[in-house]
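pinging the channel bc i need a second pair of eyes. not urgent but kinda urgent?? the chain im working w is below, pasted from the shared doc
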Amino acid sequence: MTPAWILPVFPIMIAGPVASAVVAQQDTENGIPILIAGIAAQGLGFTISILMYSNYFGRLMSYGLPEKNKRPGMFITVGPPSFTGLALIGLSNEAVRLFPTDFISTSINVPEMLRVMAIFIAIFLWLVSLWFFSISLVATLLGIRKGITFHLTWWALVFPNVGFTLETIQIGSSLQSVAIGWFGSAMTIVLVVTWLFVLIFHVQAVLSKKIMGLDNNDEDMEVDLERQQRF
């Protein structure tokens, strides 16, 4: 079991942030159904991710850290709470525009209440993301000390942390915090540098036939060998 097991649920989890972007271009009649569908899909994706986390941590406690070359893949765990927090803030911002103040209840301003709740839940999830990020970072640095070679799981250094960075920026914007905004900008710069770093190593691995090659180091052959040993 590897963190990559969470990947199949990522398309569902991305539905929330995508819905918030689509809803911004819609009127009330079309926007509300998209918003509700987006939050429902986000809830499904995040819930399944939590279930997968239990298997993931059980594996870590039983067998220790993954193989050193695959440890960057641990960053995939940063994605679910990050994208969920990002979706909550984005959708709640649109709820303020789309929902009437007496939506569901006439005694409170429902859209504003939803927005406040979304911001605080996003902050809660941000710290969860930071915790997963810290564990993954320490494990990866320990692997680097032993010497690692490129593996396709290195791309997990980029994509999940995009959600983490965007969530940080959105929280800073919602709280009107200049400090958090600058921190989000710094994270963006580091993310771009990381993307370039992984891209260079990926191209180098392809040219040297360490991946997508016909030698015994091809990752597809590694997967096939693992399956044969399992069955």
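so The helical segments are 10-13, 15-23, 28-63, 79-98, 110-146, 159-175, 178-207, 219-230. and The two ends are 15 Å apart (CA to CA). — does that match what u expected or am i reading it wrong
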